[in-house]
Amino acid sequence: MTDLEFKQQVLDALSATFCAAKWYNATIWLGSGMTTSCHHPPAHLVDRDKVQANPRLLHNTDQKKADRKQMLAGERPSGCEYCWKIEDMGRAAISDRVYKSKIYPIEALHEARNISWDQDVNLRTLEIAFDRTCQFACSYCNPAFSSTWVRDIRRNGPYHNLVSDGRNHFTHDHANAQLYDYGDHNPYIDAFFAWWESDLHRTLQELRITGGEPLMSGHTWRLIDWFRDNRGRSSTRLAINSNLGPQTDVYRLIDSTQGMPIEIYTSQESVGKQAEYIRDGLDYPLWLQNVQTLLDAGITVHVMCTINALCLTTLPRLLNELLVWKHIYGRERVNFTLNILRFPSFQSALVLPDNLRNQFKNDLEQWLVSNRGHNYLHEHEINHTQRLIDYLDVVKTPHREAFDMPKLHNDFRQFYSQYDLRRGKSFSEYFPELREWYDSIQV
Ligand code: SF4
User: CA 159: distance to chain centroid?
Assistant: First the structure.
């Protein structure tokens, strides 16, 4: 069944806005007690007291139950704007609602349709972050997710003169994102391990650990040890998001997970020096080496591309690198997704002037024409590439809260000039193809 057939015949038959992710998937940040389903809608707080009596409330919050009720009635929860925007493009565009529902058995979708919207359900796929410890400070990240970003803000103060960043990503250290230090009693982490023991180790198809950098968190290694010490008790596939940068010990990971179902997800959307500029802390040759080491050890690697204004020049080169790996290791062993960055809005690809945006769109079109017949590409990889081409072509504002374009341009220039000073980089040197436009932005 194609993605479009699945949408029309399965999902739309349940309701015009049904998405199984609201029932069976969650992202939970245990350091702050926040959650969302799927990862696109804004996060909200889990009740710290109630969750100690009922760990299932880590996921089954009042907000999510209200969203489920809306979906069952064919209404659009506002937090799911990411999908509605894609679907409103027409052109039979496939939103994540399809991809995030298709991974579950059809019976599970019917079960979600038939139970009451306010019933607690056990998760089938879960992404958790134990804490925000991370040795990277990527340009599109912020202190809520990276301790290195926290150090930047604490040492150098807030970023100034950003007028479109209504969420104030870069003006404070986001202390609320890490309410407990490692070793503190954290009721959310207690609740997670309690729910893991009672249900989750049986019901989860996949547990994905994110961060920060999870391989720098002791809780991640506690969980890996659980799998090692409880072989056969759980068939949950373990997936770890890792930046595969310095201080990530891939050899320890390979040793500790021998014989376990484990996959690695790693972020990358460009190559070489440009990648190191965007993802501050990255050592691109080391990243290549670590991916190869994991592939050689039989571990599947998923590359998550966060599509932003700076990555489009070299994105096709990265995709070519992935095709080479697919050729060597097999189509199933290396996968990629193209995820469109929405926040911070001024880093969206849509801030680029028409000539550059069109040039990058044409480059991608050409890449797709040359490779779409390649049997190493998955259907979702072709669809993701096509939807990015469509996005660059037809969507004119980054998201509905975005300010007007002059403000986004102001912030683009303001941000990167301050980023350069703090990180010892030079935008114009790293991105010669954007230099003329960058220099022309008046602030
Ligand atoms: S944003 Fe899309 S994929 Fe995520 S829960 Fe909402 S409808 Fe589903």
Answer: 24
User: Contact, 293 vs 344, CB < 8 A?
Assistant: no
Strand duo 44-45 + 34-36: pairing? antiparallel
pLDDT at 397: 57
SS3 for 267? strand
The Å distance, Cα 339 to ligand 1 centre, comes to: 13
Res 443: pLDDT: 84
Q: How far is the CA of 252 from the centre of ligand 1 (A)?
A: 35
Q: Which of 115-119, 150-154, 340-344, 365-369 has the lowest mean pLDDT?
A: 340-344
Region of residue 77 (left: phi > 0; alpha: psi -120 to 50; beta: else) = beta
300-307 and 334-340 strand pairing: parallel
- Give the residue ranges of DSSP H helices in 306-430: 315-329, 354-371, 379-394, 405-423, 427-430
Query: Does 165 have pLDDT greater than 80?
Result: no
Residues 6+ apart with CB under 8 A from 329: 295
Q: How many Å apart are CA 98 and CA 3, to the nearest integer?
A: 7
Distance 20 CA to ligand 1 centre (A): 8
Mean pLDDT (whole number) for 325-338:
97
Tell me phi and psi for residue 399, to 5 degrees: -165, 170
80 lines ligand 1 (CB under 6 A): yes
What value, to the nearest 5°, has the Cα angle with vertex 325 and ends 319 and 329? 145
CA dist 345 and 362 (Å) reads 23
In this structure, the chain runs to a length of: 443
From the centroid of its chain, how far is CA 259?
27
Q: Which pLDDT score, from 0 to 100, does residue 398 have?
A: 58
Average pLDDT over residues 397-410: 73
83 lines ligand 1 (CB under 6 A): yes
- For ligand 1, is residue 137 a contact (CB within 6 Å)? no
Q: Which residues of 77-86 are buried (b: 16+ CB within 10 A; e: fewer)?
A: bebbbbbebb
Over residues 135-161, the pLDDT tens digits come to 999 999 999 999 999 999 999 999 999
**pTM, rounded to two decimals:** 0.86
Q: Is 96 in the pocket of ligand 1 (CB under 6 A)?
A: yes
Q: What is the pLDDT of residues 224-258, one digit of tens each?
A: 999 999 988 999 999 999 999 999 999 999 999 99
State residue 182's pLDDT score.
74
Half-sphere exposure of 308 (CA within 13 A, CB side): 23
What distance in Å separates the CA atoms of residue 271 and residue 366, rounded to the nearest whole number? 19
